[in-house]
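We include this case.
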Amino acid sequence: MADTVPLTDHDISEALCDQVRQADRDRTPLRIVGGNTKAFYGRDIDGQELSTREHRGISHYDPVELIVSVRSGTPLAELEAALDAEGQRLPCEPPHFGASATVGGMIACGLSGPRRPWAGSVRDLVLGTRVITHEGKQLRFGGEVMKNVAGYDLSRLMVGAQGTLGLLTEVSLKVLPKPAASHSLRLELPLDAALTKLAEWGRQPLPLSAASYHDGALHLRLEGGVSSVAATRERLGGDSLDAGYWEALREQQLAFFCNDQRPLWRLSLPNNTPPLALDGEVLYDWAGAQRWLKSDADAADIREACARAGGHATCYTPGAAEPFTPLAAVVAKYHRNLKAELDPNGIFNPGRLYAEV
């Protein structure tokens, strides 16, 4: 990962409110941009650029209470460096896909890394947000404590919305301490044996925090107390694995992701799903619940196979006409109604997720 930029505190929320207000009056579509490292994720859109890069800084951080509030344009690496200095981290291990990745992009895309099945998703970390509405008003939703929510939980609704519901300006997050010990292993196993082992270990209190399979080997990460990690390492055996493997997997820098012209698909599937009958090369992540598929197979065939297994497929190749699985009619109606309620003039990233929203 590149060196982090110097710590900067800069609040331009008023200027952002003015730009949104003008766009709503003129009904001018806005293309919201942060670090632009995840521009490939979603449909291409046309619109006037609205950049959050200058709206940055950690506005509040309480390491004792495990809470941090940060502006949306803050580089993700800068936030992670501040947490690391206090022996803490974002447990969901979000990918960057570039040194300029921002906190706002992390929330908008909602992507999580190898630790997600064991530590939770980006959505699970969100306590509250500040959002600029289509009227150019900055509103606060949620707060800095976990509590029950009545009605729409708008803060968490922003996660994965790709900026289609409003302009995120600040988010409050739950953070966690880094573990006392960590060790990674590589075990050479056939795929069926690896999946059987993962299903078996999933029913046991082992300190697993990552599990992937490719190139004929199962890769595991153990995190937790010193004695627990040491005992599990001794029990499972295998060879030691460089800890940098997990960052390379998270950032799609492994050889699997490079120098291949086939479309890349992310398959989201229920736990313990057997291998799907699809042509192509597969890397298993999240103990098999997330699978990366490189394949020239027809998009409809890939999605049908995932649907039969109870999952869905997302195309990660830039320029895909429909990167996300089409919505069922009744679900699409709810999406349209929510978009119409929060963004009646359709100015926020129109068509980023689906053509109708």
Remarks:
- Confidence is low (pLDDT under 50) at residues 1-6.
